[in-house]
Amino acid sequence: MITFHTVPDAFSPAECSHLIEVARAAPAADAGLVRATTEHNLRRADLVWLDDLPDTDWVMERLIALVARANREVFDFDLTDFAESPQIARYGAEREGHFTWHSDIGEGRLAARRKLTLVTQLSDPGAYQGGTLEVWMNSNLATAPLEPGTAVLFPSFALHRVTPVTEGERFSFTVWAHGAPFR
Ligand SMILES: O=C(O)CCC(=O)C(=O)O
Ligand SMILES: [Fe+2]
Fold first, then answer.
1. Of the four listed, 15, 21, 29, 38, which is most buried by Cβ atoms within 10 Å?
2. What SS3 state is found at 140?
3. pLDDT tens, 159-174?
4. Domains in the chain, ordered, with CATH?
């Protein structure tokens, strides 16, 4: 199985900047993990949920099309729904924003049904240092491309992390597709 599937230009640079601005304007919640625990050594990020942002129907439509196509062409998972709001995360250097090694499949009612993860880079690579998204699969460690608007998709069970941001800030956009748990 490939480490991740890349979709260049999933969003245009203008769309990425727009999403960052809309997220900035919204009140952020501190990033909790699955089951709403807040363990800052695991993850330090500010989160905004797409469902709370105005005029973002077009984003969900885009995501549905991207996931449907990638699933048809690459993954062939049994996906049934998008049970959780997509999330815009900001990792800032002021507290070394990061997310340590984890799998997105958790024990919560919704997290247990996550099957496919899609992460889109929103920030220009010049806006930050560190903050690389790494995915580990099949003895391969792969680093997600940095271009804003590039999406990577991987099975939600794959281990991945975001290394600490040491300068500036990085915004990313994550959505999960759900279905009956793997068996
Ligand atoms: O920000 C990223 O690149 C990854 C986010 C992530 O792993 C998550 O929200 O589960
Ligand atoms: Fe994750």
1. 15
2. strand
3. 999 999 999 999 999 9
4. 5-178 (2.60.120.620)
**DSSP E strand stretches across 13-67:** 29-30, 43-44, 46-49
According to the model, what pLDDT value does residue 97 have? Answer: 95
* 8 A C-beta contact, residue 92 and residue 23: no
* CA separation for the pair 169, 183 (Å, rounded): 38
The letter for the amino acid at 52 is: D
Residue 173 DSSP one-character state: E
Pocket of ligand 1 from Cβ distances under 6 Å = 87, 89, 99, 104, 119, 133, 160, 162, 172, 174
HEC profile of 38-51: CCCCCEECEEEEHH
CA angle 47, 124, 141 (to 5 degrees): 75
Map residue 77 onto helix, strand or coil. coil
Pocket test for ligand 1, best of 105, 118, 133, 173 (most atoms within 8 A of CB): 133
Please identify every stretch of the chain with a pLDDT value under 70, giving residue numbers as ranges: 31-40
List CB contacts of 65: < 8 A, sequence separation 6 or more.
none
| CA 167/CA 99 separation, integer angstroms | 16
For a substitution probing ligand 1, which of 99, 116, 156, 169 has the most ligand atoms within 8 Å of its CB?
99
